[in-house]
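Q: I have two molecules that I believe assemble together. Could you output structure tokens for the complex as a whole instead of separate predictions?
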Amino acid sequence: MPQEKGFHVAVVGATGAVGQQMIKTLEERNFPISKLTLLSSSRSAGTTAFFKGQEITIQEALPESFEGVQIALFSAGGSVSKELAPEAVKRGAIVVDNTSAFRMDENVPLVVPEVNEEDLKNHNGIIANPNCSTIQMVVALEPFRQKFGLGKVIVSTYQAVSGAGAAAVDELKRQTKALMNDEEVEPKILPVKSASKHYQIAFNAVPQIDTFQDNGFTFEEMKMINETKKIMHMPSLQVAATCVRLPIAIGHSESVYFETETAGLTIDEAKDLMKNAPGVILEDDPSQQLYPMPANCVGKNEVFVGRMRKDLDYEKGFHMWVVSDNLLKGAAWNSVQIAESLVKLELV
Amino acid sequence: MPQEKGFHVAVVGATGAVGQQMIKTLEERNFPISKLTLLSSSRSAGTTAFFKGQEITIQEALPESFEGVQIALFSAGGSVSKELAPEAVKRGAIVVDNTSAFRMDENVPLVVPEVNEEDLKNHNGIIANPNCSTIQMVVALEPFRQKFGLGKVIVSTYQAVSGAGAAAVDELKRQTKALMNDEEVEPKILPVKSASKHYQIAFNAVPQIDTFQDNGFTFEEMKMINETKKIMHMPSLQVAATCVRLPIAIGHSESVYFETETAGLTIDEAKDLMKNAPGVILEDDPSQQLYPMPANCVGKNEVFVGRMRKDLDYEKGFHMWVVSDNLLKGAAWNSVQIAESLVKLELV
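A: Yes, here they are, computed for all two components at once.
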């Protein structure tokens, strides 16, 4: 279909926190759309959403919903993607999937456009959107990888509750209100809704995101480790992650230590690399107390980098603080950006 | 003075968050006290505090206040310590100072009893209590240092606002209440009261604790780096820190990566070392979602360790999550513990 007329786009999971941001981002980016189909579970079907002033009724996502759809943005959970993404592809759509269902599938490109846009050319119908905490980290690391190589990455995350969905944000608010009134809290959702134990998130730090693997790392931590290697095409890159949930509504932060492969990078050059990096805004001036913070990143598409320091002991070691809106670059915006890349590369 | 009769103890800064915990801890530990003198600024003098059921009037701290005092616990800010600690020593007292005034003074032992109690024998009247974030980390690292040596330490902190004093806790509560009511906040204290800019702490993460140094690290980060080297007698230990303030009232958490010097430490042995380490409680069972959290450490003297993992790439690399009550082991309890060690070693 000629680009001027636009594409038939579907959003699956249109009532969710990320789905709503996808609709908003498609509108803000003025993505070429001839028709927008909004899909959800049967439970949410029948409600409406607005796109460019038009009210659109959200329909139940079924295999036949994808007839004529060219680009389908999925964000309705892994099981929905596993069931319906192949159905969408069968009907001719390209799927950009925001769940973890296909991320490590070797036939599925895992894409952050600033890093590996070219991988889109090898798609077989499905393209995976990486985990939120992975995306913002690789955007900041890529310029260093390109110029000096990467030897080792150690990251500790400071993650917002919206990464666990809108219900987790409600839980944070509910608990905060209760504790401010000296009332008891009854945790029901975090750290993992389906897990047997739930813990207070208000005024607390919970070092568990997603379920535990046999090696003691959580699935969230393994996502950061494995996805980073795949996106950067560095299967033997040394990456380690510790992921922590915090009483913050929106905005993930990361304390990242990385080692370059070759020596010679100065701190001024490191800051310059970030200043000129695609998708990055450098906020780094200690004399002005300028550094990124989650409260300032909300609603912005960029990855914010600051607190850049050269390690005091190791010539190739660097530290930085990376912040981004986990619902945007971490999810909705990266998905829409992939769709834009598909159009630009004439892959759709 | 014979121990049975007890010692004349003074607490300087008796109305502060840490000072109050010191009084409480002296009582709970049943420290041998013949007389307790409570001192503060002239502003707070005249108020009272309870110790073992007795109401004690808090007096203005003056040089002559230390006549007859044998042990003086200081926690009233660096300038007070600089002025009055030498006056107390001149009058025969041993000073345990919780400020940063003397920590890096080579004539002053910097002591965490689980790590370097023996250093107390070299005191010249003043003993320094390390920074809160340093103490809990070295307690957890020491057993590894003893058995396998330490090569490198990289820590990212998750610090509570009470580390910045009672006014910072009030600010967190005030801002939280305002934001829950959709009102504006007017930050006045954090990250650093005397700094020109103040930032929202409620529902935010602020990657600045204390002022910035020329090398881009904050003073808090340099405290962790330099104090760790001094306490462990490892001037060339590679330590790096990133310190972050979070919307948590009490309880510092730390994501610690460390490398042993010699190989051979297994993950089971690492957990065993923590299980048997003095001052440490191991809380580490992923199958039970058991790990330390700040909300659970409040009011406890121990350092809680969990999320222990062997690095997936480097044989000598380990990750752990270290949590402690920053007002207790991080301040009041470590000070009282130093006083107990002084009695035990017959140094007072």
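A: One point stands out. Chain A has two domains: 7-129+331-344, 134-325.
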